[in-house]
Amino acid sequence: MSTPTMDEAAKVLADPSAYADDERLHAALTHLRANNPVAWVDNPPYRPFWAITKHADIMAIERANDLFLSEPRPLLAAAEVDDALKAQMEAGMGLRTLIHMDDPHHRKVRAIGADWFRPKAMRALKVRVDELAKRYVDKMRDIGPECDFVEEIAVNFPLYVILSLLGLPEDDFPRMMKLTQEMFGGQDAEHQRGDSPEDLLAVLTDFFNYFSALTASRRANPTEDLASAIANGRIDGELMSDVDTLSYYVIVASAGHDTTKDAISGGLHALIENPGELKRLQENMNLMPTAVEEMIRWATPVKEFMRTAAEDTEVRGVRIAKGESVYLAYVSGNRDEEIFDDPFRFDVGRDPNKHLSFGYGVHFCLGAALARMEMNSFFTELLPRLESIELAGKPELSATTFVGGLKHLPIRYSVR
């Protein structure tokens, strides 16, 4: 088989710095959707893959979860990182979260935490979420008239929510925040511990050491929290393996915090940049549910997941060989002109809004209802009290190819 020709625009998908430059990123993705929607990408240090940039194709691949598998390459990482994680897994101490798994094992593991994110559990948690939302809007008032919204508000609010759900003590929250930033900020010079596979493995080891002690504690003395449900979760009558148990904590504690931080800060930035939409929402707070969906579409905290073809197949007439990987570009699907009217317009009343920010199919985000509730609570508390707001400096986006968003949002404001 001859090597496919590569469209230079597709290189942005394997370039962490491109995700810190919205204009550059979206210009390339707009080109790919129109001209090369299934594009070959060979850009070291990453192994080659097919970039899928159209909304319909992403959804079709997500539905075909028996043909397109999460294992062995669920997300884009440098080849040496892929190899290091594989070696660690073979040694019995790797990272295997829900995003790494396929059915039937994925379905069984997902069920262990699923009840904690159902409507009944969300209603029970709402009092705590509303309380935390008020705490952080009060903090904005107290530290104003300027702050870095990401570092002082957006990072902390969802972290407190998810770690409260897990049942962790507040004294441990700063440690979890730092580890989360190091894991998802591994491609960003400001947040990474280092730039080698060994540095990433060291972050995972710190996570695992913390949660190993937590597992032992919750098995000896179970409590009424998500941490206990994970520690005592069983698959086919047996306790989960150490790898699956520890990985479950990691994905809940980190993804459940960092992605919501990105959506909240990206949403506020969009409201600042679109003052007419901010005024519209303040004057009609009944629009909050659609506004939250639009903020999540706009920010797209999870940029991609990957799948590997289990058999030879085709996508949009392009042959995908067994063993080749496809890159599901959610950030592109969320701007697809065939799905969204005027996709580059921020519209707090957008309906329908079939965004892909939570994924689709069997891997639809377990914590989607919680993220929506957190954002609704926060902006429902903030907007009636917000008298003015503007940028106080240049916003900065993280360099990433996986999860990311604003890392700095300097604002000047007045909150009652």
From TrEMBL:
<comment type="pathway">
    <text>Steroid metabolism; cholesterol degradation.</text>
</comment>
<dbReference type="Pfam" id="PF00067">
    <property type="entry name" value="p450"/>
</dbReference>
<keyword id="KW-0153">Cholesterol metabolism</keyword>
<comment type="similarity">
    <text>Belongs to the cytochrome P450 family.</text>
</comment>
<keyword id="KW-1207">Sterol metabolism</keyword>
<keyword id="KW-0442">Lipid degradation</keyword>
<keyword id="KW-0408">Iron</keyword>
<keyword id="KW-0753">Steroid metabolism</keyword>
<keyword id="KW-0560">Oxidoreductase</keyword>
<dbReference type="InterPro" id="IPR002397">
    <property type="entry name" value="Cyt_P450_B"/>
</dbReference>
<keyword id="KW-0503">Monooxygenase</keyword>
<dbReference type="GO" id="GO:0008395">
    <property type="term" value="F:steroid hydroxylase activity"/>
</dbReference>
<keyword id="KW-0443">Lipid metabolism</keyword>
<dbReference type="InterPro" id="IPR001128">
    <property type="entry name" value="Cyt_P450"/>
</dbReference>
<keyword id="KW-0479">Metal-binding</keyword>
<dbReference type="GO" id="GO:0006707">
    <property type="term" value="P:cholesterol catabolic process"/>
</dbReference>
<dbReference type="InterPro" id="IPR017972">
    <property type="entry name" value="Cyt_P450_CS"/>
</dbReference>
<protein>
    <recommendedName>
        <fullName>Steroid C26-monooxygenase</fullName>
    </recommendedName>
</protein>
<dbReference type="GO" id="GO:0005506">
    <property type="term" value="F:iron ion binding"/>
</dbReference>
<dbReference type="InterPro" id="IPR036396">
    <property type="entry name" value="Cyt_P450_sf"/>
</dbReference>
<dbReference type="GO" id="GO:0020037">
    <property type="term" value="F:heme binding"/>
</dbReference>
<dbReference type="GO" id="GO:0036199">
    <property type="term" value="F:cholest-4-en-3-one 26-monooxygenase activity"/>
</dbReference>
<keyword id="KW-0349">Heme</keyword>
